[in-house]
Amino acid sequence: MKDFIIPTSKDMDMGTPASKSTEMVTLTIDGFDVTVPEGTSVMRASAEAGIPVPKLCATDSVEAFGSCRLCVVEIEGRRGTPASCTTPVTPGMIVKTQSSKVKKIRKGVMELYISDHPLDCLTCAANGDCELQDMAGMVGLRDVRYEAVANHFEARNSSGDVNTQFIPKDDSNPYFTYDPAKCIVCSRCVRACEEVQGTFALTIEGMGFNSRVSAGAAGDDFLSSDCVSCGACVQAWPTATLQEKSVIEMGTPERSVITTCAYCGVGCSFKAELNGDELVRMVPYKHGEANRGHSCVKGRFAWGYANHSDRILNPMIRDKITDPWQEVSWDEAISYTAKRLRDLQAKHGVKSIGGITSSRCTNEETYLVQKMIRSTFGNNNTDTCARVCHSPTGYGLKTTFGTSAGTQNFDSVEETDVVVIIGANPTDGHPVFASRLKKRLRAGAKLIVIDPRRTDIVKSAHIEAQHHLPLLPGTNVAVLSSIAHVIVTEGLMDEEFIRTRCDWDEFAHYAEFISDPRHSPEATAMLTGVNANELRAAAKLFATGGNGSIYYGLGVTEHSQGSTTVMAIANLAMMTGNLGKNGVGVNPLRGQNNVQGACDMGSFPHELPGYRHVSDDATREVFEAIWGGKIDPEPGLRIPNMLDAAVDGTFKGLYCQGEDILQSDPDTKHVQAGLAAMDCVIVHDLFLNETANYAHVFLPGSTFLEKDGTFTNAERRINRVRKVMAPKNGYADWEITMMLANAMDSNWTYTHPSQVMDEIAATTPGFANVNYEMLETRGSVQWPCNDDKPDGSPIMHVDGFARGKGQFIITEYVATDEKTGPRFPLLLTTGRILSQYNVGAQTRRTENVVWHEEDVLEIHPHDAEVRGIRDGQYVRLASRAGETQLRAQITDRVSTGVVYTTFHHPDTQANVITTDYSDWATNCPEYKVTAVQVALSNGPSEWQEDYNAQAEQSRRILPAAE
Amino acid sequence: MSPEKMTRMANQIATFFESQPVSDQAESVAAHLKEFWEPRMLEKLAKHLQSGGEGLSPLALEASKRVTA
Q1: Domains of chain A, with CATH numbers?
Q2: A810 CB near a chain B CB, below 8 Å?
Q3: Which residues, given as ranges, of chain A have pLDDT below 70?
Q4: What are the chain B neighbours of A920 within 8 Å (beta carbons)?
Q5: A139 touches chain B (CB under 8 A)
Q6: A607 three-class SS
Q7: Would you tell me which residues 356-415 of chain A have a C-beta closer than 8 angstroms to some C-beta of chain B?
Q8: Does ipTM top 0.95?
Q9: Overall number of domains in chain B
Q10: Is A560 in contact with B8 (Cβ distance < 8 A)?
Q11: A22-33 pLDDT, tens per residue?
């Protein structure tokens, strides 16, 4: 940590990582008794006693290295001056951190360092935030006796000749610079890249005076190297050698606020560091329990969208979508919207309007949107983008375990022995979790990857999956059933767990089903494409390798059998007893920051907050008592049903908060038709997104930096989001929803989101003990948090399942209707990339575009060759739903017969290709399987040209009338 | 929503419950429909039944009768 300032803050760098030992050791440091866990370094013990020892190469995010010799101390009975960072404590040890001997050594070390360092401190970007500076002060360095004849920091020597040791600053990375002149070769960056991030991009090249940090192979700079710009090295570095460009530009920040990242479902805690209300940098918070001080390129650096010139700050309205936008006051926008919605209800019925809550907004905002729909609109037509991602998780885990949520916390991965990753690409989609996972894998845990593509987690630096099962898209259930078949027929189940925690008779029936030879790996290999021996070995490893955990993503849920696959995963965890303790469990990796929260908060049309069906009288009465009025006992429309009803003419108005359904939902043409058929579409967002092309009202939204609230991450962790600056659009999103509800005759009087959380706690049993005061004290808490679980629930189903006994479900494989044939012989599957986030509305408006400025189609060399396609050429991608054009990337990461692309760019609009097929239980779209054909292209498709013309026409804005 | 899409969705639900060891599969399908389908979807299903219920699998047909009765 660079922010070593005064050792009073709990953010103080302790020098070396904490020991997890439960054995305690007492020693004496400078006359004070100190008791610390066994395995703690003398440096850390000293820091815990409030006596920081000078240090340069040590930092508590990485293991001790013992290279700088600044932290030497004297220990009674030991010869010499051991480095405190690499010396573990022993009982009764007597340490002296200050003596004339160590002071002299430290001063000598610092003198050598400083003799090869430019003394431009006053104009250096790290001024005031530099450990070298701090240490020079701490050891009392007052003069340097050595003349820097040979050095690394002067471009030319005193006779004007070129200094061959000088390497100019590398500013190739958009977010930080590397200045070799200021490097002290402490190796912190290299160790952070290895130990924290696990990418191994950085190394030290050369020896002695020639030692230099290198970003990879010769000729690599920080942009072209394997570096993933996670920021771990920048964080670890003690000087200005690796420096955020934002700090170079704006100066060192003067205040910080702890908040939660608004990108993926890992939900990393960050310190937003500011000057006034100007954000200078986002630094991962070391006490954040989801991320433990780590970050990825999105959360760490990609926040520039908050100030992007595309951001809309004034409300806008228009009669028809062919009109240009008209800027209006908030009052006018809200009353106009309220009137249009009420007029629609008067003409077409109470159920003719609805809304979509945002998984990017806070719990409090989501709760208010569904409350407005259920109580102010008077119907249950509320849904959320979880419909198109994790709704099968909700159905599947509720059916099998009784709760719609993952079973573990992220720390659990530190105790896992065998990891199964299915349909997830964590190094790109959930990078901070991936780093924690890779750390565990390097320590010896085994890995099984079930994915059509050879994702980076299958094989990367010092990581290699024991088994990769590259299945054909759409055959998840067949593969998981075969794994279960092997476990059951070979008798590898955890019988005791099944007998005590599940219904044995029910399991016996399941065992009979799954033992049928049709589920054997040999029988399913023909349709899954997975080698039977490999699958058998993987199944045995999972069942017998110790703590087994399953992590999964949208490659599981976004299928016509998405819910069945989730239940097959639950079956596997139950039959092997991998539930209810650390290191195991069923772990859905959630896409967006608050998908879990949006689901918890009653966003689904059939469920009130806390996953209770709207038909349940007692639940409705709880809310009716607080909200007033009656709640409809019938379920409302889900997003795809809303669009169908719009085309049918019975659904006329939609309030859409923080979601771009036109870009993110499948079968774009159908979404377009649905939106075009509505009379009032209200988009509440930061930008004129694609959906806004069909909107009549645009309500500008606020960013996560501009409001208070909470997000709930994939591990059910409720984390505070804190307002670090005033909303540039004038209001936080919860205030805007409240204004609209009140304009439609509600009488809401919230003055702070904490009051909304109090209402959630009062109505929703799993949140009963959650309030802002508690979150201030604890930092975060994992639900359920109530009188039964006052400290929250890091691990679920410890003593019993939420539903009582765990339920085994028969998982018969059913092939999807989406089949390849002569016209569409290839299978398209879609996914995400590290640098971009979902529809890209945020990340496309940051420097992250340098890594991914367009969507490309991954195609196997064989499939490319038979079509005459060369790498980088434009190709036409067509399905029965539509066609688009994009560039081909030839790679054997995909198997023959399978192609892959991302959906980050509206210019490509990958979803014009995907179909309206969906999961049987939840209508979650089948994004991951589309039969397609690929051919050389002769220009953008007609659809792309029409689409772009409409979008351009629709985005015209007239200035506000005087 | 086209009748084809509606029958496909109903048949998908029926296909799942057809594999389940429950005493009354049609009841399970009907319960699922009631739990997740909005009334106007069920109305459409009822109309489709009145005109013969073409395309519905036998189990989906039986469940549809119960849920729209």
Answers
A1: 24-98 (3.10.20.740), 176-307 (2.20.25.90), 318-388+594-782 (3.40.50.740), 391-588 (3.40.228.10), 826-954 (2.40.40.20)
A2: yes
A3: 1-9, 960-962
A4: 9, 12-13, 15-16
A5: no
A6: strand
A7: 380-381
A8: yes
A9: 1
A10: no
A11: 999 999 999 999
Report the run of H or E that residue A736 belongs to, with start and end.
helix A733-743
- Residues with Cβ within 8 Å of residue A640, at least 6 apart in sequence: A387, A665, A916, A918, A923, A925
Pick among B36, B44, B67 to test the A interface (most A CBs inside 10 A): B36
* Partner residue opposite A920 with nearest CB, options B13, B35, B39: B13
Distance CA A728, CA A392 (A): 37
SS3 assignment for A193-258: HHHHHCCCCCEEECCHHHCEEECCCCCCCCCCCCCCCCCHHHHHCCCCCEEEHHHHHHCCCCEEEE
> What is the pLDDT, as a whole number, of residue A3?
39
pLDDT at A908: 86
Residue A804 distance to chain B (closest CA, Å): 19
Residue A18, token pair as written in the block: 């904490």
Provide CB contacts within 8 A for A94, sequence distance 6+: A27, A28, A75, A76, A77
Residue closest to A182 by CA, chosen among A133, A251, A109:
A133
What's the CA angle centered on A697, arms A692 and A700, to 5 degrees? 75
A 539-598 near B (Cβ less than 8 A): 560, 564
Each residue's pLDDT tens digit, A493-525: 999 999 999 999 999 999 999 999 999 999 999
The beta strands (E) that lie in A335-386 are given as: 353-357, 382-384
Q: Is residue A503 within 8 angstroms of chain B, CB to CB?
A: no
Q: Are A920 and B41 in contact (CB < 8 Å)? A: no
> Which residue has tokens 């013309």?
A949
For A410-469, the three-class secondary structure string (H helix, E strand, C coil) is HHHHHHCCEEEEECCCHHHHCHHHHHHHHHHHHCCCEEEEECCECCCCCEECCEECCEEE
Which candidate from A381, A606, A644 shows the least CB-CB separation from B36? A606
The verdict on a CB contact (< 8 Å) between A637 and B38 is: yes
Cβ separation of B35 and A637 shorter than 8 Å?
no
CB atoms within 10 A of CB A774: 18
Other beta carbons within 10 Å of A276: 10
pLDDT at A9: 63
- For A158-190, what is each residue's pLDDT tens digit? 788 999 999 999 999 999 999 999 999 999 999
The number of C-beta contacts closer than 8 angstroms across A and B is: 61
Other residues' Cβ atoms within 10 Å of the Cβ of residue A74: 17
DSSP β-bridge partners for residue B55 = none
Contact A84, A73 (CB under 8 A): yes
**Phi, psi (5° rounding) for residue A73?**
-135, 175
Of A560, A636, A811, the CB nearest to B12: A560
B31 lies in which domain range?
3-68
- Show the tokens assigned to A469: 């099962």
Judge whether A881 is closer than 8 Å to chain B, CB to CB.
no
DSSP tag of A180: G
CA dihedral A309, A314, A319, A325 (to 10 degrees): -30
**In the numeric block, which tokens belong to residue A259?**
């908040």
CB contact under 8 A, B16 and A564: yes
